[in-house]
Amino acid sequence: MNIFMIGGTGLLGCEAAQQLINKGHNVTTVALAGLPEGAPIPKEMKIEFGDINKRSDEEILELMKGNDVFVFAAGVDERVEFPAPVMDYYKKFNIAPLERMFPLCKKAGIKRAVVLGSYFAFLAKQKPEMQCAQKNPYIKSRLMQEEVCKNAADENFSTCVLELPYIFGTQPGRKPVWTILIEQIEFMDKLPFTLYPKGGTAMLTCRQVGEVICGAALSDHKGYEALPIAMYNMKWDKFLGIVYDARNMPGRKIVGVAPWMMKMGMKKAVKDYAERGIDSGIDPYHLPYIMDYDLFIDSSYAKDCGATADDIEAAIHDSIKVSVAAHEGKAKLLEMRAE
What we know:
The protein is α/β, with parallel strands linked by helices. It is built from 14 helices and 13 strands. The strands form 3 sheets. A 7-stranded parallel β-sheet has the order 3-2-1-4-5-6-10, with helices on both faces. Strands 7, 9, 11 and 13 form a 4-stranded mixed β-sheet that branches. Helix 1 (11-22) packs across helix 8 (206-218), helix 3 (86-108) runs parallel beside helix 6 and helix 7 crosses helix 14. The two termini are 29 Å apart.
């Protein structure tokens, strides 16, 4: 099969491309110029450099010609900062490209699309009483993205959204998103313990994401589906134990706090956002309630898409090691870009 991908040189797109190529399929990607130094980009993948949003419909149709599957492995998540109104940026990078690409896919004869989404959409649907979409622009935008995918599906075109959780693993030359975590917890180093929420999260490695994208791309499922994807579930205190091991602070005491206590600590973040003109995609005062919840996902969907066992603790450790180096300015790394 022939696969057309947006974002094939990124951390997740690159993994998916390699998996697809290993199975004998052809991959063409459009990606922003400036590859991470040392990144294992598959040499068999055809790369068209440039911003897809700046290409004409005719140019995109020419790129799509002869392909069977479209994979959208681009966009931004809640950790990328934008000025107000942040929803405009989520629409620009996560929603509008699909609204434009899906009709072009159909015109080019592509039969299936796979879109990388977020497990926060899964949370919003599973726990409507938490009002996640009403309180958080990012979560609302992911549900809007899923609606675009659902509406695009018909008898000749299927769509699949992968609701992905936190992902661990590194790509040489690329800055991990987990540098944000180091910045968030570093100020507590002077305390005898770290205060953190009591909940937990689903997760998987970037290699497993590649396997899942590959499986979803090759699936013969018809219509629309949104799949909650995870291979591991971990409480925050266990996760932070691995983080502190990677920071050479083994045995660090983690003290679980109630949401109301974490809300008090978010005042500083709210003030910082205001001073810098940042509109947060996740409401800082609602985040404590999200993180107090065990946002766990059964591994069955991931396994059905082809995910296999991996060492999640090693992946977390590696991600944090590189994040620390980036935070301390000891490594020159390519940062995540919106455009």
